[in-house]
Design goal:
alpha+beta, conserved putative lor/sdh protein from methanococcus maripaludis s2 fold, Elongation Factor Tu (Ef-tu), domain 3, 4 domains, 6-stranded antiparallel barrel, 4-stranded antiparallel beta sheet, 20 strands, elongated
Length: 410
């Protein structure tokens, strides 16, 4: 009995030992495998912990004399715009067949005609009256001469009779002169019945119909002379003060207003035309200073007839176009021309010194479109970084990507 019991208790103990031994063998085999696999794997190459360079573009600078151009905008207007009003009243008897808005009527042609019947009647009537008054004047003059002879030589006539004869003669002469004046007015009014184009006129507005009654002084037609056009251009007063050209020697005795402005040639471009066409104008005068907008308004003249002779097939510059005007000003001497993005808002630029970034303050004398002009802070031969950078690290290593291009050009 006891031997059987001992046999039963030794079996679980043997099973437990066997399990432990198996687990240890598995762990040993796994550890050996991991060691073998670890030895088979090659270690990664060590990365070089070097300084990274900043890729930029740069340009080598040099000083130059740069002419300054002031750009302004304005609307083209005809220099001469004339409202036409009849000088006499009456009904419209005839109208030019091309008296329409936009038409061009040559100088000397009749725009419209007022019915002259009433003025012809006045002229005819007063001519008859003038014949009668001339005869009355002759008789009164003869009567006066007769009284004068009788009074001086024969002492027959009285002084009062002589004076009465003289008075009658003078009254007749006065009436004759009045009728002559009425005739001259009637003749003038008859001529004024026809309204003539004073120049090669473009019709801007018209309000006329045949049979319409018009009064003297009533504006019925507006004419424009397109031979000379003008653009009024407001300029920033600071730009005008710095860059407009004034001739110090020619003041014309007037030092109060801008009488010595140089009338320099200007370039005019229609803002809606992108084909590069320009027109030649000329700075004419300064019109006014606008204290509200702080601008100086200048006038630029354009001779349309001269331009038409030069290029008859080109697009004409006409009244109403909104144009930009490029006015040449003074010259900037010994300045550096830089792209606008190369200069920061704090007026600093980044330059490359031995492939390292350096920030220097500069003296910006003018900004014009995509260009900035610098007068100091940098030197001829410096490599100015033209890539726009935001808070770059000072003394950062640079890689100038367009260096080969610059060297090839040099």
């Amino acid at each position: 009995m006891e031997s059987n019991a001992i046999k039963r208790s030794s079996k679980p103990a043997l099973s437990l030992v066997t399990s432990i031994i198996i687990c240890i063998l598995v762990l040993v085999v796994g550890a050996a495998g991991m060691v073998m696999l670890t030895r088979l794997k090659k270690p990664p190459a060590e990365a070089e912990n070097g300084e990274r360079s900043l890729r930029v573009e740069a340009m080598q600078i040099k000083k130059a004399d740069v002419p300054v151009f002031i750009t302004g905008y304005g609307e083209v207007k005809a220099l001469t715009v004339v409202p036409i009003a009849p000088e006499v009243s009456g009904r419209i008897a005839d109208i030019h067949p091309r008296l329409k808005i936009g038409e061009i009527i040559p100088k000397g042609e009749v725009l419209f005609k007022i019915d002259p019947k009433d003025y012809l009647t006045v002229l005819k009537t007063n001519r008859k009256r003038l014949k009668i008054l001339k005869r009355s004047h002759e008789l009164a003059k003869k009567e006066y001469q007769r009284f004068l002879v009788l009074f001086k030589k024969n002492n027959v006539a009285t002084l009062s009779g002589l004076e009465a004869a003289e008075k009658t003669m003078l009254a007749a002469a006065d009436l004759e002169n009045q009728i002559i004046q009425v005739l001259e007015t009637a003749e003038n009014n008859l001529e004024r019945c026809e309204v003539i184009a004073p120049f090669n006129a473009r019709i801007k507005s018209v309000s006329l119909e045949i049979g319409q009654y018009v009064t003297s002084g009533q504006n019925v037609v507006t004419l424009a002379d397109d031979s000379v056009l003008e653009i009024q251009v407001p300029l920033d007063s600071r730009d005008a003060r710095k860059w407009l050209r004034f001739n110090k020697e020619e003041t014309n005795g007037n030092t109060i207003w801008f009488s010595n402005l140089e009338q320099v040639p200007c370039k005019i471009r229609w803002t809606e035309n992108n084909n590069g066409q320009t027109w030649d104008g000329r700075l004419h005068r300064i019109i006014k200073f606008d204290r509200q907008t702080r601008t100086l308004v200048v006038a630029v003249r354009f001779d349309a007839e001269t331009d038409l002779k030069k290029s008859p097939q080109s697009l004409p510059l006409v009244d109403g176009m909104f144009c930009s005007v490029k006015i040449p000003g003074r010259t900037l001497h010994n300045v550096f021309r830089l792209p606008r993005q190369a200069v920061s808002f704090e007026n600093t630029v980044h330059i490359a010194v031995k492939d390292r970034l350096k920030t220097v303050p500069v003296n910006v004398v003018r900004v014009d479109g995509e260009n900035a002009y610098v007068a100091g802070g940098i030197n001829t031969g410096d490599m100015v970084i033209t890539t726009r950078l935001i808070d770059p690290l000072e003394s950062a290593l640079l890689e100038i990507t367009n260096r080969s291009k610059k060297e090839n050009k040099s």
